[in-house]
């Protein structure tokens, strides 16, 4: 039997395709946008608190390819991928925000964007360029209105879908990404990468008392939890936001569940933002082990105390 012949236009896996290697003037390899995106996604998928430093170094090196570009497209691509990961994985948003902060602090001034000019009509560069890209990305992602894609009833409550249906998963995904976005924006603000002005605009937008949608209110709750304590240092801001929240609690046509969540937010402010649930971001494996050891120690102490109490009780009853 004659062996099969390889077709000239046969499909070949991307990893086995032969490509011309492009080199920058300094000898470093330059990746096209498809390859850069693949490498960026791979690195972000591997990013944990344990390997934070080496992985972020590799990501920053990918961003640095923008020194050979006029529009910093490599930097913008990595930031877009970071936003996608952070919004899809809200529990890890503080880690992704920390990567952005590291990028701002360490990014070389040799990278500039000729399409983005400062007030002196000069290209923005280095850390200032990263900040500008973050701000624009926040505006773009927020204005996409993920929350508004979740179908609602005429009274603003979220529509209920049959469990396990395609509509159910679509609504759950949009809700998760909406919550993830505002949490990530809050984390960026907490690290000083976004201004008060940006956060206040979003808070005012989401606390609009005119027919508020419940998914928008849940986003508001998440953002206030992340930024409220910091914003208290600016007189008047949180007073105004909580007046609107109180009006919504008392007057808006919302479900009891969301009303209770808003009331919990009011109580959280009254307690000066002290809550065991706040600031519970991702932990390293060693921190998890330490927490487990502390829990085990407390459990053992409680058991010992109970045994001692039982012994003393029996001794007293035998007298």
TrEMBL record:
<feature type="domain" description="MIF4G">
    <location>
        <begin position="37"/>
        <end position="272"/>
    </location>
</feature>
<feature type="compositionally biased region" description="Polar residues">
    <location>
        <begin position="310"/>
        <end position="319"/>
    </location>
</feature>
<dbReference type="GO" id="GO:0003729">
    <property type="term" value="F:mRNA binding"/>
</dbReference>
<comment type="similarity">
    <text>Belongs to the eukaryotic initiation factor 4G family.</text>
</comment>
<keyword id="KW-0963">Cytoplasm</keyword>
<feature type="compositionally biased region" description="Basic and acidic residues">
    <location>
        <begin position="289"/>
        <end position="308"/>
    </location>
</feature>
<keyword id="KW-0648">Protein biosynthesis</keyword>
<dbReference type="InterPro" id="IPR003890">
    <property type="entry name" value="MIF4G-like_typ-3"/>
</dbReference>
<protein>
    <submittedName>
        <fullName>ARM repeat-containing protein</fullName>
    </submittedName>
</protein>
<keyword id="KW-0396">Initiation factor</keyword>
<dbReference type="InterPro" id="IPR016024">
    <property type="entry name" value="ARM-type_fold"/>
</dbReference>
<feature type="region of interest" description="Disordered">
    <location>
        <begin position="280"/>
        <end position="319"/>
    </location>
</feature>
<keyword id="KW-0694">RNA-binding</keyword>
<keyword id="KW-0597">Phosphoprotein</keyword>
<dbReference type="GO" id="GO:0003743">
    <property type="term" value="F:translation initiation factor activity"/>
</dbReference>
<dbReference type="GO" id="GO:0016281">
    <property type="term" value="C:eukaryotic translation initiation factor 4F complex"/>
</dbReference>
<dbReference type="GO" id="GO:0010494">
    <property type="term" value="C:cytoplasmic stress granule"/>
</dbReference>
<dbReference type="Pfam" id="PF02854">
    <property type="entry name" value="MIF4G"/>
</dbReference>
């Amino acid at each position: 039997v004659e062996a099969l012949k390889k077709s000239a236009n046969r499909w070949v896996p991307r990893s086995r395709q032969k490509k011309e290697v492009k080199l920058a003037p300094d000898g470093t390899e330059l990746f096209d946008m498809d390859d850069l995106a693949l490498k960026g996604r791979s690195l972000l998928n591997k990013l944990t608190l344990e390997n934070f430093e080496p992985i972020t170094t590799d990501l920053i090196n990918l961003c640095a390819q923008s020194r050979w570009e006029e529009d910093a497209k490599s930097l913008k691509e990595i930031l877009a991928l970071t936003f996608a990961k952070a919004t899809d994985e809200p529990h890890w948003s503080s880690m992704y925000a920390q990567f952005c902060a590291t990028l701002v602090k360490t990014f070389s001034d040799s990278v500039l964007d000729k399409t983005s000019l400062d007030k002196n009509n000069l290209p923005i560069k280095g850390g200032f360029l990263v900040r500008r890209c973050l701000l624009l990305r926040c505006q773009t992602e927020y204005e996409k209105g993920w929350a508004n894609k979740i179908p609602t009833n005429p009274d603003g409550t979220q529509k209920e879908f049959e469990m396990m249906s395609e509509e159910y998963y679509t609504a759950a995904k949009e809700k998760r990404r909406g919550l993830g976005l505002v949490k990530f924006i809050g984390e960026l603000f907490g690290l000083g990468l976004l201004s008060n002005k940006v956060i206040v605009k979003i808070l005012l937008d989401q606390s609009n008392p005119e027919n508020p949608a419940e998914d928008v209110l849940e986003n508001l709750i998440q953002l206030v939890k992340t930024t409220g304590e910091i914003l208290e240092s600016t007189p008047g801001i949180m007073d105004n936001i909580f007046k609107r929240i109180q009006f919504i609690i008392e007057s808006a046509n919302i479900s009891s569940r969301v009303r209770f969540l808003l009331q919990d937010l009011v109580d959280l402010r009254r307690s000066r933002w002290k809550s065991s649930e706040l600031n519970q971001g991702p932990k390293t494996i060693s921190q998890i082990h330490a927490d487990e050891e502390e829990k085990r120690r407390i459990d053992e102490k409680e058991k010992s105390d109970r045994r001692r109490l039982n012994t003393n009780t029996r001794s007293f009853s035998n007298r």
